């Protein structure tokens, strides 16, 4: 991660860490249910929650593993996750502050790498995935989840613009094909992929990131003036709310 992008992410998410701990769209979902089911009975000793954000992967993983290392580039996120874990009585989550592109862990040190809703903030997707593979033991479980760009070019462009106006630490939502290729090139065998739809309530979506009022006004205008195909692809409503797809990849380290 470049220094500028690193600082952009820290500056943006530091003051908003607690909002992501309580965010409903982050705290639940069938993707988390799927992740927990994959860990249940597996007997994993040490797992990595890469780009942990509000810690929802860590909380779901903790009952099924020996230790969860919650890793995020934003110190305030780690502090919020450890506080929440203590309040929930979860004692096997530890925190580590680091960017995905430069992980401070030994080679082959994790039985599973779990990554949810973070890769679109990385300045270098391939470097982050290479690091994820480096710290994975051969055969380690991979669960990689992120929001994805639509295949339609105009809708892709529209989504990147509104995401960046809302959140300046946003780098890119990649397509399903780009993510699958990146995982494969990094040394992961992708065994399954599933795309699910997430509904983004415009007011909640912008309030969670404390988007400045001028940007909120621009976002409303962009949503209102989007072309017919973009509106259809993203299911944009009259209030600016829309649907965003998220892909779940499961597999293992080669």
What does this structure look like?
It is a single chain. The protein is α/β, with parallel strands linked by helices and 254 residues long. The protein is globular and about 50 Å long. Helix 7 packs across helix 9 and helix 8 crosses helix 12 (228-234). Strand 2 (67-72), helix 6 (75-87) and strand 3 form a beta-alpha-beta unit. Strands 3-2-1-4-5-7-6 form a seven-stranded mixed sheet, with helices on both faces. The longest helix has 14 residues, at 153-166. 43% of the residues are buried. It is 44% helix and 24% strand. It has twelve helices and seven strands.
Summary keywords:
single chain; 254 residues; alpha/beta; seven-stranded mixed beta sheet; 12 helices; 44% helix; globular
CA radius of gyration: 18 Å
The residue-averaged pLDDT reads 93
SS content category: alpha/beta
Low-confidence stretches: none
Distance between the termini: 25 Å
Count of extended strands: 7
The largest sheet has its strands arranged as: 3-2-1-4-5-7-6
Share in helix: 40-55%
Shape: globular
The major sheet is characterized as: 7 strands, mixed
Indicate the proportion of strand residues: 15-25%
In N-to-C order, the SSE pattern is: HHHHEHEHEEHEHHEHHHE
**In DSSP terms, counting alpha (H) and pi (I) runs of 4 or more, how many helices?**
12
């Amino acid at each position: 991660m470049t220094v500028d992008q690193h600082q952009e992410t820290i500056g943006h998410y530091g003051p908003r860490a607690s909002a992501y701990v309580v965010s409903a769209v982050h705290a639940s979902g069938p993707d988390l249910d799927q992740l927990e089911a994959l860990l249940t009975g597996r007997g994993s000793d040490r797992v990595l929650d890469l780009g942990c954000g509000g810690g929802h992967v860590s909380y779901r993983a903790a009952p099924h593993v020996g230790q969860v290392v919650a890793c995020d580039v934003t110190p305030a996120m780690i502090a919020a996750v450890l506080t929440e874990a203590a309040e929930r009585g979860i004692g096997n989550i530890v925190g580590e502050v680091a960017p995905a592109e430069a992980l401070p862990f030994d080679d082959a040190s994790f039985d599973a790498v779990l990554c949810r809703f973070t890769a679109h903030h990385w300045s270098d997707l391939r470097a982050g995935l290479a690091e994820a593979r480096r710290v994975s033991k051969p055969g380690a479980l991979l669960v990689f989840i992120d929001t994805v760009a639509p295949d339609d070019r105009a809708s892709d462009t529209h989504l990147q613009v509104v995401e960046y106006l809302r959140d300046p630490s946003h780098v890119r939502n990649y397509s399903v094909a780009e993510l699958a290729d990146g995982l494969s090139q990094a040394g992961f065998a992708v065994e399954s992929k599933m795309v699910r739809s997430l509904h983004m309530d415009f007011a909640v979506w912008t309030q969670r990131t404390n988007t400045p009022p001028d940007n909120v006004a621009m976002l409303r205008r962009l949503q209102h003036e989007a072309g017919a195909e973009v509106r259809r692809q993203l299911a944009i409503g009259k209030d600016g709310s829309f649907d965003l797809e998220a892909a779940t990849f499961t597999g293992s380290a080669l």
